[in-house]
C-alpha cells in the first residue's frame, strides 16, 4: 500500500536585510511603507498560505567602518508590523523573529500573547540568538554573552516564556467562562522562575490567548540548534532546500524527536526557497540568469569578496580577475556583524578554491560571486515548479517551503496565481482554510489538548 500524499505547507517571507531583492527592477517597492506589507500579506492569504514571516535586523550593517549601503538598511519594528497586519488579514499566520539574547522573557511573552489575542490565534515566534558583540553594542549587556552560552540562555528563555504563557491555565486554575470569575483560590498569572539566566517572579498580566502559546520556530542549523529545535520548537526555518542536503537534514532532525517524547509530525521542517517563473523552462532559466546579475552588481561582488579577503578591494575591477594577494588572517574583520564572516572559516583555502574555479571557467570576480553564491531554488514554468515542490515534499526533503521572492511587494503574485492552483489540483495543498489559528493550518496540537491528555491519563 502506498503511503498517503503529504499536504504541503507554504509560507511567504517578506525579504529584509539581504542580497535577494532586486532593487533596480521598476516593480521593486518600499520595505517601509505599510502598503507593501499589506499587498504581500493579502497575496499570501489569497493563496491560502500558512503564514507570513518577518526576519529582524537589530543593527545596520557595516563594512570597512562605513554603513553597508548595497541592500536594505532596516525595517519598522516587527511586532508593530505584525499587529497592524492582524487587522487587514483574517486567516494568515503572523510570524516574527525576536532575539532571545537581548530581550527578556516577560516582555516577549507579553508581546506574543497580545499578538495572539489581536490576531485571533495566528501568532508565531522565530526564536533566534545573537553571537556577536557588534550587535550587542546596541544593548545594555552589549556582547557579554559568549557564543557557546547563547543556546543555554535561549533554552531557558523559551522555557520561561512557556511558564508565563501557562500561568493563566495551570491545572490548579478553574474558571467560569461565562462570568470570568475564578472558582479556586489560585492567582491567575502568578509565576516563579529561578534559573542560571533568569530569576523572576510576579504576575503575568495577559490572559490565556487563543493558541495558548505562539507557534515556535527555530532557525539554527548547528548541532546545538537542531537539538534545541527537537526539544521544543514546532517548526524549523531551514536553509537546506536541495534534494540530498534537504533529505539528510530532514532525517537527522526528525530522528532527534523521540528522545523528547515527540512524534515526527510535531516538528515541521520548512526551508527558505527562492523561485523564478517563466512561460517555459527555458524562459525561466533566462530570467533567472538576468535576476542573478541584477542581484550581484559589480559593487556587491567586490563587497562579497572582501568578506573572504578581509581587505579593501575597491581598487579592483569586478569584471576583471581575482586578486593575486592572499586574504588577511588573524586580524579584526573588515565586516562587522555579518553572517558571512562565520561562513568562511578558512579564507586561504577558499581563496585557492575560488582562484582555481575562476581560472578554469574564465570567470571575473562578478562571475565567480554569481556562480558560487545562492541560486534560485525553483526555476521553471509553473507546471515544473509545482511538480518539483511536490516531489521534494513527498520525498521528505521538507514539509513545505517558505518562499522568498526577489521583488517586493509583488513578487509573490505570479506564484499565487499560477503555481498554487496546480498544487491544489494535485490534491496536496488546501483550497480553503479549515481552521482559524496558525496551529490549525500547520496541523499542530493546542497546548491545552496535550494538558487534557495528561489529566485524563
Automatic annotation (TrEMBL):
GO molecular function: monooxygenase activity
UniProt cross-references to Pfam families, sorted A to Z: Bac_luciferase
Segments passing through the bilayer: none
EC number in record: 1.14.-.-
Protein name: NtaA/DmoA family FMN-dependent monooxygenase
Family: Belongs to the NtaA/SnaA/DszA monooxygenase family.
Species for this entry: Streptomyces sp. 900105755
Domain Luciferase-like residues, every copy: 25-395
Top-level EC class as recorded in UniProt: oxidoreductase
Alphabetical UniProt keywords: Flavoprotein, FMN, Monooxygenase, Oxidoreductase
Amino acid at each position: 500500500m502506498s503511503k498517503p500524499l503529504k499536504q504541503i505547507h507554504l509560507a511567504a517571507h517578506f525579504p529584509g536585510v539581504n542580497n535577494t531583492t532586486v532593487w533596480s527592477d521598476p516593480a521593486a517597492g518600499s520595505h517601509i511603507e505599510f502598503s507593501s506589507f499589506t499587498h504581500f500579506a493579502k497575496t499570501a492569504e489569497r493563496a491560502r498560505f500558512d503564514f507570513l514571516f518577518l526576519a529582524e535586523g537589530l543593527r545596520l550593517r557595516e563594512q570597512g567602518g562605513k554603513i553597508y549601503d548595497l541592500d536594505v538598511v532596516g525595517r519598522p519594528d516587527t511586532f508593530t508590523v505584525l499587529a497592524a497586519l492582524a487587522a487587514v488579514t483574517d486567516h494568515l499566520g503572523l510570524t516574527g523573529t525576536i532575539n532571545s539574547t537581548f530581550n527578556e522573557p516577560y516582555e516577549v511573552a507579553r508581546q506574543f500573547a497580545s499578538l495572539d489575542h489581536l490576531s485571533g490565534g495566528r501568532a508565531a515566534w522565530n526564536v533566534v540568538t545573537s553571537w556577536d558583540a557588534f550587535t550587542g553594542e546596541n544593548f545594555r549587556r552589549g556582547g557579554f554573552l559568549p557564543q557557546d552560552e547563547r543556546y543555554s540562555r535561549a533554552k531557558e528563555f523559551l522555557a520561561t516564556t512557556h511558564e508565563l504563557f501557562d500561568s493563566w491555565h495551570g491545572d490548579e486554575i478553574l474558571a467560569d467562562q461565562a462570568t470570568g470569575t475564578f472558582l479556586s483560590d489560585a492567582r491567575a498569572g502568578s509565576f516563579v522562575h529561578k534559573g542560571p539566566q533568569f530569576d523572576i517572579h510576579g504576575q503575568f498580566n495577559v490572559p490565556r490567548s487563543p493558541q495558548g502559546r505562539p507557534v515556535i520556530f527555530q532557525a539554527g542549523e548547528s548541532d546545538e540548534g537542531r537539538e534545541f529545535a527537537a526539544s521544543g520548537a514546532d517548526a524549523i526555518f531551514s536553509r537546506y532546500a536541495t534534494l540530498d542536503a534537504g533529505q539528510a537534514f530532514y532525517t537527522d532532525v526528525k530522528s532527534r524527536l523521540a528522545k523528547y517524547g515527540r512524534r515526527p509530525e510535531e516538528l515541521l521542517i520548512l526551508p527558505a526557497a527562492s523561485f523564478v517563473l517563466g512561460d517555459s523552462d527555458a524562459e525561466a532559466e533566462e530570467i533567472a540568469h538576468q535576476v542573478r546579475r541584477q542581484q550581484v552588481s559589480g559593487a556587491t561582488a567586490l563587497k562579497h569578496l572582501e568578506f573572504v579577503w578581509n581587505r579593501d578591494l575597491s581598487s579592483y575591477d569586478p569584471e576583471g580577475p581575482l586578486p593575486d594577494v592572499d586574504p588577511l588572517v588573524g586580524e579584526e574583520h573588515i565586516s562587522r556583524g555579518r553572517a558571512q564572516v562565520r561562513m568562511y572559516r578558512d579564507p586561504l583555502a577558499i581563496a585557492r578554491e575560488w582562484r582555481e574555479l575562476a581560472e578554469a571557467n574564465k570567470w571575473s570576480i562578478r562571475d565567480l560571486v554569481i556562480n558560487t553564491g545562492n541560486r534560485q531554488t525553483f526555476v521553471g514554468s509553473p507546471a515544473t515548479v509545482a511538480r518539483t515542490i511536490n516531489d521534494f515534499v513527498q520525498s521528505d526533503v521538507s514539509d513545505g517551503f517558505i518562499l522568498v521572492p526577489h521583488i517586493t511587494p509583488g513578487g509573490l503574485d505570479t506564484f499565487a496565481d499560477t503555481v498554487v492552483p496546480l498544487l491544489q489540483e494535485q490534491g496536496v495543498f488546501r483550497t480553503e482554510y479549515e481552521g482559524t489559528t496558525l496551529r490549525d493550518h500547520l496541523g499542530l496540537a493546542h497546548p491545552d489538548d496535550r494538558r487534557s491528555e495528561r489529566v485524563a491519563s
